[in-house]
Specification:
Blueprint (H helix, E strand, L loop, with lengths): L1 E10 L2 E11 L4 E5 L6 H8 L7 E5 L5 E4 L11 H11 L7 H5 L15 H10 L8 E5 L7 H16 L4 E5 L10 E3 L19
Parallel strand pairs: 3-7, 3-8, 5-6, 6-7
Antiparallel strand pairs: 1-2, 1-4
Keywords: ATP-binding, Cytochrome c-type biogenesis, Membrane, Nucleotide-binding, Translocase, Transport
InterPro entries: AAA+_ATPase, ABC_transporter-like_ATP-bd, ABC_transptr_haem_export_CcmA, P-loop_NTPase
Organism: Loktanella atrilutea
């Protein structure tokens, strides 16, 4: 479903990772590890097609990928239900009723998103993944602002819904999600700096 070969990517024109290679089949996920500044966000953005690679290839079926950063990306003037309906309609879909329970939003359906707590906003942002119908997910620190209960809920949705229904995911996270999936430490793939180059780790 997702094939990555000898990928070399950069931020601000400076190479940060090189030689990244892996495969994911339907129902599989991969956790990205590495210290801050190693290039996890840069890799995810490159995989998602938000920036071009310097070299190498990324292959997955057209119009199946979605990228979610650690920003919530919600519309504060809309209710929880209206937010999810908006995103479902963008993709020509309807909101599955199960998504509210999956992300612990049942009691918040009519609440304006702007009145939610940070954790509630995060759950709403993640719930968008359950309505857009994309099979290949690229997730950057998806559990920021979530308590332990909500982290377990997210991991349960990822395992029992997204992966079980044939999706795949690449997830950058510093915490243990409780998913029985492989990890990829990006440290060995850090690009070698050239003689004139520097680092732009502040932007990774």
């Amino acid at each position: 479903m997702l094939q990555v070969r000898d990928l070399r990517c950069a931020r601000g024109g400076v190479p940060v990772l090189e030689g990244v290679t892996f495969d994911l089949n339907a129902g599989e996920a991969l956790i990205l590890r590495g210290p801050n500044g190693v290039g996890k966000t840069t890799l995810l953005r490159t995989l998602a097609g938000l920036q071009p690679p310097l070299d190498g290839t990324v292959d997955y079926p057209e119009a199946t990928g979605a990228y979610a950063s650690h920003a919530d990306g919600i519309k504060t003037a809309l209710t929880v239900t209206e937010n999810l309906t908006f995103w479902a309609q963008v993709y020509g879909l309807t909101v599955p009723d199960t998504v509210f329970a999956a992300f612990d939003l049942d009691g918040l359906r009519s609440r304006a998103a702007g009145t939610l707590s940070a954790g509630q906003k995060r759950r709403l942002g993640l719930a968008r993944l359950g309505v857009i119908g994309r099979k290949v997910l690229f997730l950057d620190e998806p559990t920021v602002s979530l308590d332990a209960f909500s982290v377990r809920n997210f991991a349960g949705w990822m395992r029992d819904v997204h992966l079980a229904q044939g999706g795949c995911a690449v997830i950058a996270t510093h915490i243990d999600l409780g998913l029985d999936v492989p990890t990829l430490d990006l440290t060995p793939f850090v690009a070698q700096a050239d003689a004139t180059g520097g680092s732009d780790e502040a932007f990774l």
